[in-house]
Amino acid sequence: MKIRPDQEFSPTDRLFHFLARVRSSAVGNRARLAIGAFLLLAAMGTFAAGDGIIIPEFAVFPDSSGFFATVNQGGPTVESTNPFFQNLGTNGRSCVSCHQPGDAFSITPPHIVERFEATRGTDPIFRPVDGANCPTADVSTLEERREAYSLLLTKGLIRIGIAVPATADYQVVSVYNRYGCNATDVISMYRRPLPTTNLSFLSAVMFDGRESSPATGTTKILYSNYPSSLLSDLAHQSVDATIIHAQGDGTRPTAVEQQQIVDFETKLFTAQIRDRQAGNLDGGGAKGGPVSLSTQPFFVTINSSVHFLVPAFEQPGGLVNPGDGQFTSNIFNLYNNWAQISDRDYEDHSAARRSVARGEVLFNTLQIPITGVAGINDDVAAGGLVAGGIPSLLGTCGTCHDTPNLGNHSFPTPLNIGTGDLSPTNASVNLGGLDMTYLPEITVCKKDATTGQPANNCKTTTDLGQALIDGRFDHVGKIKGPILRGLAGRAPFFHNGSAATLLDAVNFYNTRFNLNLSERDKDDLVAFLKTL
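Now predict its structure.
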């Protein structure tokens, strides 16, 4: 039996790996003493303000599919001295409360439940302001807290309350919220915390883009102003998050602290590094893991699918160089070398690796009839591609997920694919058949331009998306697509947590766009997505 680079990681192997990294970092004895505590917390998936832990240059964490890893290009970070980990508000929360290293810098229900049980629901993440389904919920007893925080515990959702813009061209005519937040002037929506890693590849900050919008005093991220716009937007977001989620008074983070937070976040790169079936994801000529990701070229509009279709949009576009006129639907090229692996080469992993490679090909080439997607099929005046709209566009996964080896859109292009919209034939599920019964039903009607009163053009959805930021009826439900790296470490998926697993996400697309995927196709796509 030949020695392969795919031997299992044991806890001891990971400890030695961490120690070797830290020794080479010149942090010294304090880092080496902290590493045991770091590994314990990594296994638990929980970090808190004041732990005094070192965030090393290279950290490995377990997830349901294997292991993911984070590269910290800023070097070993002493948690107690970085404001990302400090209580800057009044309710005990810090950035890390909802952006845990062990959850790919988001939060996941199993670890949230552990925090609840360990503290009887008093960990700082459990605060009525937005951790509860509604801030008026009773949290006086353990069981009342368990009920009040049910969406956080089961879906990893945070309540986001945003006021309807005074200039909105629509009116919220009704809200049905089973948790009691039925106001029609401040709308309660429930969203997953986006990861605070891989941020240097962002084209918009927040699902609804509110931290990259003139409507909030921030800056739309463009090729011409990147990365300064991104960095200033992230700094602004750190202040807003502290005021809203940590109930701060606005004095912190200071300008210096904002810079420290942004510096830390933008030097983090997270990706799956090992799969239980496929083994090491940089083995056999593959390019998985965060090390290669950290060197991935990027500019705003890189490989823009929209610019390739409509050159006036998303300029300059281009694949290798800005404006070179190139586009490829082969968004990911991480596992090309696994397609022809024979059983004798990597007998323990060969079948799984071929499945991953087939899934990557499907992601890149599967033909998808895109219909009913606001931001693509609607009229150009509403944010679509062409005047009068286009009923159907034959695309691929890369039409919306066009950033090479990242999978987000390389330009701020919010879309509504139906993850938050109710099925017209069954109001308990969304357009891809996933359960919506835990979310509010929000009905909005466009105002008559003459009378200012609600007209007959109405929509019912569970999240108003971009429309709550810019006040445009045509933008109801539009949100950005997230970066796809590190997926396996941060279930559930979609902005509202409606896909409990990656198979649920694949099934959503299969139903929504009538893809007629075979069971092997689904398995291959899931196998691929787990390795990102």
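The CA atoms of residues 409 and 520 lie 27 Å apart.
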